[in-house]
UniProtKB/TrEMBL annotation, chain A:
<dbReference type="InterPro" id="IPR003439">
    <property type="entry name" value="ABC_transporter-like_ATP-bd"/>
</dbReference>
<dbReference type="Pfam" id="PF00005">
    <property type="entry name" value="ABC_tran"/>
</dbReference>
<dbReference type="GO" id="GO:0015658">
    <property type="term" value="F:branched-chain amino acid transmembrane transporter activity"/>
</dbReference>
<dbReference type="InterPro" id="IPR030660">
    <property type="entry name" value="ABC_branched_ATPase_LivF/BraG"/>
</dbReference>
<feature type="domain" description="ABC transporter">
    <location>
        <begin position="5"/>
        <end position="236"/>
    </location>
</feature>
<dbReference type="GO" id="GO:0016887">
    <property type="term" value="F:ATP hydrolysis activity"/>
</dbReference>
<keyword id="KW-0813">Transport</keyword>
<dbReference type="InterPro" id="IPR027417">
    <property type="entry name" value="P-loop_NTPase"/>
</dbReference>
<dbReference type="GO" id="GO:0015807">
    <property type="term" value="P:L-amino acid transport"/>
</dbReference>
TrEMBL record, chain B:
<dbReference type="GO" id="GO:1903806">
    <property type="term" value="P:L-isoleucine import across plasma membrane"/>
</dbReference>
<dbReference type="GO" id="GO:0015192">
    <property type="term" value="F:L-phenylalanine transmembrane transporter activity"/>
</dbReference>
<keyword id="KW-1003">Cell membrane</keyword>
<comment type="similarity">
    <text>Belongs to the binding-protein-dependent transport system permease family. LivHM subfamily.</text>
</comment>
<dbReference type="GO" id="GO:0042941">
    <property type="term" value="P:D-alanine transmembrane transport"/>
</dbReference>
<protein>
    <submittedName>
        <fullName>Amino acid/amide ABC transporter membrane protein 1, HAAT family (TC 3.A.1.4.-)</fullName>
    </submittedName>
</protein>
<keyword id="KW-0812">Transmembrane</keyword>
<feature type="transmembrane region" description="Helical">
    <location>
        <begin position="204"/>
        <end position="224"/>
    </location>
</feature>
<keyword id="KW-1133">Transmembrane helix</keyword>
Amino acid sequence: MTALLEVQNLSVAYGAIEAVRDVSFAVGEGQIVSLIGSNGAGKTTTLRTISGLLRPKSGTILLEGKPIADLAAHTILERGVAHCPEGRRLFGRMTVEENLQLGAYVRKDSGVAADMQRVYDLFPVLGQRRTLKAGLFSGGEQQMLAIGRAMMSRPRLLMLDEPSMGLSPIMTQRIFDTIKELQAAGTTILLVEQNALAALALSDRGYVVDLGRTTLEGPGHELLADERVRAAYLGED
Amino acid sequence: MATLLQQLINGLVLGGLIALIALGYTMVYGIIQLINFAHGEVFMVGGFASLATYRYFLPPSWRSDWWLALPLMAIGGAVVAVVLAVVMERFAYRPLRNAPRLAPLITALGVSVILKEVVRLGYPGATAPVPFPRAFVDHQFRFEFFDGTVNIGSTAILMIVVSIVGAIILQTYITRSRMGRAMRATAQDPDTARLMGVNPNRTIVLTFTIGGALAGIAGVLYGIHITNVDTEVGFLYGIFAFTAAVLGGVGSIKGAVIGGFAIGLIKTLSGQYFPGGTQYDLVWIFVLLIVVLVFRPQGLFGEPERVRA
């Protein structure tokens, strides 16, 4: 079985600085896969390269076995890869509804209104404030909207970059529950998290990224039990 | 009183013209942060192109019917202006998209000089102002107002109406349509807009297209109102429009329109009432600009500049 997404020996450089040196991982259809690792390890760069915002220096990115590293960002989205970026990056001067409409920008089918309603059902607080500007919302609400916006393109693969950043524990739990629900509904998820404990707990598979390299991999529960992971990322010694 | 009303009308006419050009400045700035100094020349070329449409393409029997000739001249002027704006973006600005901001700015100045000289040397008779046909749409409406007579020409009415209607259509398009949302998204956060599937090049070309069309239409309106066009007007009105856009807040549609009318009114009213008259009217425009920039650097309706993470 070929994986939905396969990244092989990826390296990405900003000028002379190599942020990603050798990252390899695979995401199977229907799985939740997380990339964990400390700040600056190259996780965000990896996601930005997959979604076409950055070009790799070397290595391959395969979506269903076909290379996508040379495609424009909008083409990659049309192929079914949505990216919910770090820091949420909502269009703060636009309303909730406009943000969701932009999420569905590439769609030409008639199901957009129904999908928007689904987001409002999932996050009622967004439904109540659909005409308000997104910039006025709290961090948790903005994260809900960012996830909802990414879902509006009906992606097969949803990439979430630090969805729990800056959120309260309750809100973090809420977001992770939502990720689990999305998986149950058939979406494949690639998760980047500093909150390694929570991320691995719900992941089918995890990869540790360190200094631009994937150094450890395994099923989420095994990595959770791995001493090296516990020492480095879970704050135990 | 009649003089005041007359100057208010004149100010609105001039303001409408400036607003139409300023919209192109403000939209292009909003999306790629480029002050397109060649935009004034797009307006000038639009004027010449509409004149060329009249002289060389309209059958003589159509020329006397303004309802036939004028729309065709407007189309001719707008089409040439759009092509020019899009070609300019593709070959002068796009290769510099990731260059330091000064590079496209200087390129824009260069494009401006090239366009002016090409028209001056290339268009028959353009080394001096070229007369526009005045056989049509110059009906004058006169009415008594308190102590005197007020004059308003049909071309003046057309200028005010077209600029206001154009701005309303544009504002509606930007706020309601799918492409309008894509343009606003690209202006706010280009990378995230790309993650939504917005093709940045297509959005930028559309922006130049709209700006070019409005400048081309402004060129026709200028020609029939002033009854001539010359190669210097691009620079002069370009500066007015640029000032209007900055005054209103670069990036803001509403700001460009209100800035345009403000400058038109200040120019005519100060020319009439302030010491020094029309010799000093430009001074007051730039005094206002400086005052606004000191107290509100983002302009009247602009968003304060934010540094992106």
